[in-house]
Specification:
The structure is a single chain. The radius of gyration is 31 Å and the shape is elongated. It is 2% helix and 45% strand. The protein folds into three domains: 92-327, Tachylectin-2, Chain A; 333-437, Sandwich (Immunoglobulin-like); 460-571, Immunoglobulin-like, CATH 2.60.40. The model is unreliable at 1-25, 409-414 and 441-483 (pLDDT under 50). By secondary structure, the chain is an all-beta fold.
Length: 573
């Protein structure tokens, strides 16, 4: 692995790329090549805050059977400064794809990366010059293992022109994505020669149930045929969506090469509408653009394309209808956000660390997501938990100290552990979840009630952390009123439930019942209670008079001093 400070010749005959901007400067959002090598079809992905690009290397001045013999790989934290890594998938006489490797497409599933590509054979079992689709697998985007045989060949799709003895039949440029209409299924778009017109190309589709070595033909998208577009080429297809509109972009042989179509669904061949040239919509000269790609990074959409000697990155500015324009991307990029620990108690000091590029003098807009022990999430105002909504970036790492706190009434109860995630407002980076537990209370523990009360009730192993345990329910407390108690009795074998509330001083108390979703079901008390013990009954009905289902519920009690406690209990049949 190395930087791009100068040109150097690799042992394989490929020429390294130049890093055009010096470290610390802000240059163009592009991956530069040089006069000896074109950067063609590529895959553009982001992993753990870093952008990765895999691209076809075409070295000038070499015979046809000696260029395009490896895929390049480079990484960047900001789309500006790039680091070249070792090539991947170099051809070799030991592989079926021993002539060329082209056009990668990378997807991630369950922490594993799959790289689909076009492999070309010299003469493997009669496939002289045949283009087929191969697959390699990686867990780190650096080390790749080839699958021994192609995963899709042109003779597996009946509408594709197939003649194993003919050199150069088109079956290339795979683009793979999840099928949005069928969870668990995957789609592959590619360019191929149709049997009814072998001198032209169309975009075709195959599908997989999840076994990436098994693909079935879906059919051609005739909207890309030259009878509709007046272009014989349909290369490098890719598909993306925005607000219910799907876009199919591909490269033709016209003066403005990138064409696009739109549809309300990515599969129905009759729903696609040919919108002609991308240049007509964005108002730019695109005569040197080809092999475009799209990447969604949080709420930000990038459009990238090869211009021969470099790969350029633009940000999509969405307009009305299906229209959009392209603009220079923001060089400020948050690479990583992290907490200084994984678990705190309310009142503890913790640090939020923000690692970024090109951000000095800029502000990071933040968003906070709070979740309960059941995994229910709510986006909250950062100020409600004592965090800033905007952080001034002071260097490559900016530290924000925070005294842990929570929103007591967020899910209708308090006193339980809560998860907290902070992310950029554009969702391009975020922390892992920080577990925030109730404060460790001082003073006497709540007194148990006499006699056993029925169960069962959830225990501490269910992800809750009760401050004290009564005989029948979990109790959460607040340090400013150590005499404030809440207990539950009954409920396990019947529907009637009684709550014991003990106050150190008389005053107004409010008590409500909530379900596990945090929905308020019934107000039980909104009045003054005397000092000492009061018994509050509940008949197992909501405010509308309907009986609740058997299960686990919460009662929240607010004392005259403002302390809040929640008790967890079970309602039987």
């Amino acid at each position: 692995m190395r930087r791009f400070p100068h040109l150097s010749l690799l042992a394989t005959g490929f020429v390294a790329l130049l890093l055009l901007c010096a470290p610390g400067s802000i240059g163009a959002a592009s991956l530069p090549g040089n006069s000896n090598m074109d950067l063609k079809d590529f895959a553009f992905v982001k992993h753990q805050g870093i952008y990765h690009i895999f691209y076809t290397q075409v070295v000038h001045g070499l015979p046809d059977d000696e260029h395009s013999r490896a895929l390049g790989h480079a990484t960047s934290p900001d789309l500006i400064q790039w680091t070249e890594l070792d090539q991947v998938l170099s051809v070799s006489d030991t592989y079926w794809d021993d002539l060329h490797v082209w056009a990668p497409s990378v997807v991630e599933r369950d922490g594993v990366f799959y790289l689909f590509y076009t492999g070309v054979s010299r003469d493997a079992n009669g496939y002289r010059g045949a283009q087929r689709i191969g697959l390699a697998i990686s867990s780190d985007l650096v080390n790749w293992t080839r699958v021994d045989q192609p995963v899709l060949a042109l003779d597996q799709m009946p509408w594709v022109y197939s003649n194993p003895g003919q050199y150069g039949i088109a079956f290339r440029d795979p683009f793979v994505m999840p099928d949005p209409t069928d969870p668990g299924r995957w789609l592959m778009y590619l360019g191929a020669n149709p049997a009814v017109d072998s001198l032209s190309m169309v975009v075709g589709v195959a599908a997989s149930s999840g076994d990436f070595q098994q693909w079935q033909d879906v059919g051609p998208l005739w909207i890309t045929h030259r009878s509709r577009t007046y272009n014989w080429a349909a290369e490098s297809p890719h598909v993306f969506d925005h607000e219910g509109i799907w876009y199919l972009c591909y490269t033709a042989e016209s003066g403005q090469p990138i064409n696009f179509c739109t549809s309300p669904t990515p599969l129905d061949p009759d729903s696609w509408v040919f919108r002609r040239r991308l240049s007509d919509m964005i108002g730019e000269d695109t005569q040197f653009w080809f092999a475009s790609e799209h990447l969604r990074d949080g709420l930000v959409d990038y459009f990238a394309y090869s211009s021969g000697d470099s790969i350029e990155f633009k940000r999509i500015a969405w307009g009305s209808g299906y229209n959009f324009t392209l603009e220079a991307p923001d060089p400020f990029h948050v690479v990583r956000m992290a907490w200084s620990t994984s678990e705190v108690h309310v009142g503890d000091l913790v640090e939020l660390q923000i690692e970024s590029k090109n951000g000095i003098g800029r502000n990071a807009a933040l968003e906070v997501i709070e979740s309960d022990f059941m995994g229910h999430e709510v986006v909250v105002d950062p100020a409600s938990v004592g965090l800033p909504s905007s952080v001034a970036i002071t260097g490559e790492t900016t530290v924000v100290p925070w005294t842990a706190q929570l929103i007591d009434e967020l899910f209708g109860f308090s006193g339980e552990s809560t998860g907290l995630v902070v992310r950029m407002a554009d969702h391009t980076a975020g922390t892992d979840q920080l577990v925030v537990r109730p404060a460790i209370l001082a003073g006497p523990r709540p007194r148990p009630l006499p006699g056993p009360l029925p169960g069962p009730f959830p225990g501490p192993g269910d992800g809750l952390r009760p401050v004290g345990e009564g005989a029948g329910g979990a109790v959460a407390g607040a340090a400013d009123d150590p005499g404030f108690l809440a207990r539950v009795s009954g409920g396990a074998s019947g529907r009637d439930v009684s709550f014991l509330v003990e106050l150190s001083a008389a005053g107004e108390v409010k008590m409500d019942v909530f379900d596990l979703m945090g929905r308020k079901l019934r107000n039980l008390v909104s009045r003054d209670l005397p000092a000492g013990a009061s018994l509050i009954p509940w008949d197992g009905r909501d405010d509308a008079g309907a009986s609740v289902r058997p299960g686990i519920y919460f009662a929240r009690v607010r004392s005259p001093q403002g302390a809040v406690r929640a008790v967890r209990f079970f309602v039987g049949r």
